[in-house]
């Protein structure tokens, strides 16, 4: 682990209790992120990407259990430090941005007091200093007339403005990592691009690492340095963004990219491309490749044993025994 | 994106609240009674406990056999009835407000903790709530008064320690809804402490429900005090509690019925006004939210 490593998580597992038994939402995910780097975690609903992010801050829903064989943040091991240790990471060294800016701000307080409360909790200092920082950050995230805005209540702001406020709030304590869980899903398409640009901009200006969780490959392609594609609680393919988008090797990644609607290729009225089948139940998952039932390249040994994540070139890993040939590049 | 300063100000919610008729009427009557109670020594020259045997059982001003100065007549000991009613309002309001403050503190705390943590904590607090609900108020009051003796403090404490159940139930339910709200999760992600999350994130957002419960319980506490005093378990003579006045007047009700009509009327007016105010507040707070 080099000194540049910001986050190092190994073998993260999350189980959720359900009426029909424990559900393995995340099955052995390992992540590593360097300072200032952006990791996009991509996958469909229920693939465990949000659970992965929430478990980093110990914010899982009650009853859910997370285990990991290693959790190091900024060179310090977090595992075993208990809830107090992780709570101090929250907000202070790891900022989080949620999907729904419309509801993620407390409706009964002006945004100014919400921004300063975070800062003063972790950094102490005077209210005036905290306000000064709040104004500076609001201006930095592109909110004009920031000083007057501090007195406004969340319902007086539009969705895009609120998401900017959330970003400013996540930045209040100068965190070294920001986790953004679907930060643009609830926003208009035009605002989406602005927010993504802002996130990319902030990342370079402040040197923070960014974990971007999304189901939208278009979003990650703009911002992320690295991608981890998740399927059924596992990372199935990971590598540099450009390489994966240009030459996906796991059949699921291929299918995901193939499902992107492309107006120049799809005739009007023609059905959109999909991946046939559904995600297997993660209650008592079979000892086989989770994607085998839906895979066009399935082999007999895919259903015999679960494939391991294996190295596939520099910085690239893949969980497949029969991947698309590397020469697939279109 | 520039904002004029006036628009930044919080909208005048109180002006909007004034459009709610029941809030204005109920609140107005409660305010009137409260002012009368506070100004009692100024409004009347008499002492509420000073007997005047020569002028016993004089009638109010609209009847025969009146004495000038005693607008609402005198009771069986010749004490001015208007004075006793005014001072009685003080007792009702003080006992009501203090008892509600005590029960709100207990109930809201239990409800917040039960609603936020759920699971085993919720089960234990749920058991405590059920236990409380299974205890008849008057029976407990009887036992306590038998041991400690009836007094203003005892009655206030007994009522305050017994009527927190509605606060707990309502707060618990509202907290269960609020705890899964995104801003609560966001506060957790910001590393806020548990007291901060309960007091600053959840409590202000469930306050409308709690305020409505508080008005209902205020009326409830005032009626309970009157009932306990009527039974001789509450405020003791010569303090002028409305319930006690009803109790003392009932021996004369066939010949001097105003002795029980007047305190009864006061009690009905005050509790009805409080309930009306609560209804109005509920409507105003509901329409005030977007």
Features:
heterodimer; A: 330 residues; alpha/beta; Rossmann fold; 10 helices; globular; B: 290 residues; mainly alpha; MetI-like fold; 13 helices; 71% helix; 0% strand
Low-confidence stretches of chain B: 1-9
Amino-to-carboxy terminus distance of chain B = 22 Å
Return residue spans of chain A where pLDDT drops below 50 for at least 5 consecutive residues: none
Overall structural class of chain B, as computed from helix and strand content, comes to mainly alpha
Q: Write down the overall mean pLDDT of chain B.
A: 86
Per CATH, the class of chain B reads Mainly Alpha
Order of secondary-structure elements of chain B: HHHHHHHHHHHHH
Tell me the series of helices and strands of chain A, N- to C-terminal.
Answer: EEEHEEEHEHHHHEHEHEEHHEE
Please describe the biggest sheet of chain B, giving its number of strands, its sense, and whether it closes into a barrel: none
* Straight-line N-to-C gap of chain A: 36 Å
Domains counted in the coordinates of chain A: how many? Answer: 1
Give a verbal description of the structure.
The complex is a heterodimer of chains A (330) and B (290). Chain A has 330 residues and is α/β, with parallel strands linked by helices. Helix content of chain A is 30%, strand content 22%. Chain A has 10 helices and 13 strands. In chain A, strands 7-8-9-3-10-11-13-12 form an 8-stranded mixed sheet, with helices on both faces. The longest helix of chain A is centred in the middle third of the chain and has 18 residues. Chain B is mostly helical and 290 residues long. Chain B has one domain: MetI-like (MetI-like fold), CATH 1.10.3720. In chain B, 71% of the residues lie in helices and 0% in strands. In chain B, α5 packs antiparallel against α11 and α8 crosses α11. The longest helix of chain B is centred in the middle third of the chain and has 37 residues. The N terminus of chain B is likely disordered. Classes of the chains: A alpha/beta (330), B mainly alpha (290). At the A-B interface, α2 and α3 of A face α1, α10 and α11 of B.
């Amino acid at each position: 682990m080099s000194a540049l490593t910001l986050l190092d998580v190994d073998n993260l597992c999350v189980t959720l209790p359900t009426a029909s038994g424990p559900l393995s939402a995340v099955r052995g995910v390992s992540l590593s992120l360097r300072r200032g780097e952006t990791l996009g975690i991509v996958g469909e609903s229920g693939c465990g990407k949000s659970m992965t992010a929430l478990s980093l801050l110990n914010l899982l829903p009650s009853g859910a259990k997370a285990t990991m064989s290693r959790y190091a943040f900024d060179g310090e091991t977090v595992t075993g430090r208990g809830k107090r240790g992780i709570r101090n990471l929250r907000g202070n060294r790891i900022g989080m941005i949620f999907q729904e800016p419309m509801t993620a701000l407390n409706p009964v307080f002006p945004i100014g007091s919400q921004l300063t409360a975070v800062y003063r909790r972790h950094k102490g200092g005077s209210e005036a200093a905290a306000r000064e920082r709040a104004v500076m950050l609001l201006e930095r995230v592109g909110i004009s007339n920031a000083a007057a805005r501090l007195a406004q209540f969340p319902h007086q702001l539009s969705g895009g403005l609120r998401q900017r406020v959330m970003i400013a709030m996540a930045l209040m304590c100068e965190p070294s990592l920001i986790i953004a869980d679907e930060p643009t899903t609830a926003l208009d398409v035009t605002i989406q691009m602005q927010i993504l640009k802002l996130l990319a901009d902030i990342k370079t200006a402040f040197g923070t690492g960014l974990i971007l969780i999304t189901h939208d490959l278009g979003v990650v392609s703009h911002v992320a340095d690295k991608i981890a594609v998740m399927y059924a609680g596992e990372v199935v393919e990971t590598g540099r963004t450009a390489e994966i988008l240009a030459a996906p090797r796991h059949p699921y990644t291929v299918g995901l990219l193939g499902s992107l609607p492309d107006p120049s290729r799809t005739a009007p009225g023609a059905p959109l491309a999909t991946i046939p089948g559904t995600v297997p139940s993660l209650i008592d998952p079979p000892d086989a490749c989770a994607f085998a039932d839906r895979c066009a390249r399935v082999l007999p040994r895919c259903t015999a044993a679960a494939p391991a994540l294996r190295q596939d070139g520099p910085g690239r890993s893949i969980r497949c025994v029969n991947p698309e040939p590397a020469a697939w590049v279109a | 994106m520039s904002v004029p300063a006036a628009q930044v100000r919080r909208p005048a919610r109180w002006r909007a609240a004034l459009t709610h008729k029941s809030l204005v009427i109920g609140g107005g009557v409660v305010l009137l009674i409260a002012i009368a109670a506070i100004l009692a020594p100024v409004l009347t020259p008499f002492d509420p406990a000073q007997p005047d045997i020569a002028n016993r059982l004089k009638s109010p001003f609209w009847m025969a056999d009146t004495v000038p100065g005693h607008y609402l007549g005198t009771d069986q000991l010749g004490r001015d009835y208007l004075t006793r009613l005014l001072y009685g309002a003080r007792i009702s309001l003080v006992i009501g407000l203090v008892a509600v403050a005590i029960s709100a503190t207990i109930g809201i705390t239990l409800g917040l903790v039960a609603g936020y943590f759920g699971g085993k904590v919720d089960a234990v607090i749920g058991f405590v709530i059920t236990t409380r609900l299974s205890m008849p108020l008057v029976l407990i009051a009887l036992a306590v008064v038998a041991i400690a003796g009836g007094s203003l403090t005892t009655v206030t404490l007994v009522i305050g320690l017994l009527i927190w159940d509605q606060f707990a139930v309502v707060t618990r339910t509202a907290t269960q809804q609020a705890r899964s709200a995104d801003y609560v999760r966001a506060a957790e992600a910001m590393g806020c402490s548990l007291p901060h999350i309960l007091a600053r994130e959840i409590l202000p957002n469930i306050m409308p429900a709690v305020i409505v419960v508080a008005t209902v319980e205020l009326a409830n506490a005032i009626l309970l005090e009157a009932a306990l005093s009527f039974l001789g378990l509450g405020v003791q003579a010569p303090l002028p509690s409305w319930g006690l006045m009803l109790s003392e007047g009932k021996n004369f009700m066939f010949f001097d019925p105003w002795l029980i009509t007047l305190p009864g009327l006061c009690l009905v007016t005050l509790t009805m006004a409080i309930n009306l105010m609560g209804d109005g507040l509920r409507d105003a707070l509901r329409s005030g939210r977007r």
